[in-house]
Design a protein that fits this description.
It contains three helices and four strands; from the N terminus they run E-H-E-E-H-H-E. It is of the alpha+beta class.
């Protein structure tokens, strides 16, 4: 299994959209074969090192994770995140 974690810093002009961005992530849940779980949420502490938004997903295999990258359900979400983010970091590991 592959755990995929991404954290996003959102551009100031899009910060009001964070609840919708979270909903966009949850809109993928159950619609992508091989994705076993999905969680997302907005930062509540707002510390100096905080990112604004996190996405945590679990895939049954590396192949399922790779298929997710080009899956049609993921593409509009990915496109929107590229528009609204100022930075992102990711970590992908086997469990």
């Amino acid at each position: 299994m592959i755990r995929h974690i991404v954290m996003f810093k959102i551009k100031d002009e899009y910060k009001d959209e964070i609840p919708q961005l979270v909903e966009n992530f949850y809109g993928m849940k159950g619609k992508i074969e091989g994705m076993l779980d999905l969680e997302s949420g907005a930062d509540v502490l707002h510390s100096d090192r905080s990112y604004d938004l996190a996405l945590i997903t679990l895939f049954e295999s590396r192949e399922a994770f790779e298929a997710y990258q080009t899956h049609p359900v993921h593409q509009p979400v990915r496109k929107r995140m590229h528009e609204v983010r100022s930075a992102s970091v990711a970590c992908d590991f086997e469990i």
